[in-house]
Amino acid sequence: MDIEVIGGGTHKARKSYVCDMCGRRIEVGERYEQTFCKDIDSSKTITYRLHKRCGEIVGKFNRMHGAIPDELSFRQVAEWVQEDCCPHCPLSGGTECTGDIFTCKGF
Fold first, then answer.
1. Alpha carbon 63 to chain centroid, angstroms
2. Is the Cβ–Cβ distance between 12 and 31 less than 8 Å?
3. Each residue of 18-50: pLDDT tens digit?
4. pLDDT digit string (tens) for 11-20?
5. 9, 27, 97, 19: which is closest to 54 by C-alpha?
6. Distances from the Cα of 18 to the Cα of 23, 46, 49, 63, angstroms
């Protein structure tokens, strides 16, 4: 699926959403990143919503790998963090490590 990013920004949730990166709730009043995309093949528009932290992780991945957000790259991002970043994290394996890449303070 070829995707073109149309636009996006940071918003304050007026209702509950599900983060497209981690699958957890974005609660009412919480700030989140929203990206509007167009599937070039079908011309359908897609809206991705991410927690601020998940957006930072995806952004870092995109800067390093040049990926555009889609369902496959979200999965790739999580795998990349666990395989390439966790072994170098100063908190990895310690008492502060929760093993949760979405709340990690060492990444």
1. 13
2. yes
3. 998 888 999 999 999 998 888 888 888 888 899
4. 999 999 999 8
5. 19
6. 6, 14, 7, 24
